[in-house]
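Recap quiz, item 2
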Amino acid sequence: RKEVEQDPGPFNVPEGATVAFNCTYSNSASQSFFWYRQDCRKEPKLLMSVYSSGNEDGRFTAQLNRASQYISLLIRDSKLSDSATYLCVVKNTNAGKSTFGDGTTLTVKP
Amino acid sequence: DAGVTQSPTHLIKTRGQQVTLRCSPKSGHDTVSWYQQALGQGPQFIFQYYEEEERQRGNFPDRFSGHQFPNYSSELNVNALLLGDSALYLCASSLGPGEQPQHFGDGTRLSIL
């Protein structure tokens, strides 16, 4: 079983739709959590950190459930420019190691 | 504000050769991590350097080695290249090895023939 698991998708949604991605992790020692987006053949770019209380950045909302070892990302009012692969990252800050999921691919269509 | 820079952008090698990839961290960052990303997969952690020492290592053989210099820049060396080493190699920097998020360079695309 992978340490970080994501539904690979692809998710194909129309513009304006709301879409949610889930991520589960197995290492309970994980302490920091992030969502990155990666465009085709480009580097990953930080989308947002994920906090226990949940946090929002414009159309994006991230949630963390430590008890269930589960992270989510909600995108509201999808735009064409949201088309990308979304990577879930968990970090064991004591070990200094970040573990990435394999990503969920989103395509937003007109 | 200079971001993470990597060189070269592309590289073609043959099996058995050795390669050195370079990374300069984002201005103000002191920690560098290296990742290997194969097509269709997420980045896989190779190792992290902080205070010029390898602080943590992923499941990569000893053929993969690295170094961090006093100016925080870093090198990734791979010896005895295999076809399976073909991938995008990403460098990420952060302020400290702890909870701060990492920022990635554009990567070096390595092809082994």
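Residues 1 and 26 of chain A are 9 Å apart (CA to CA).
The two ends of chain A are 37 Å apart (CA to CA).
End of item.
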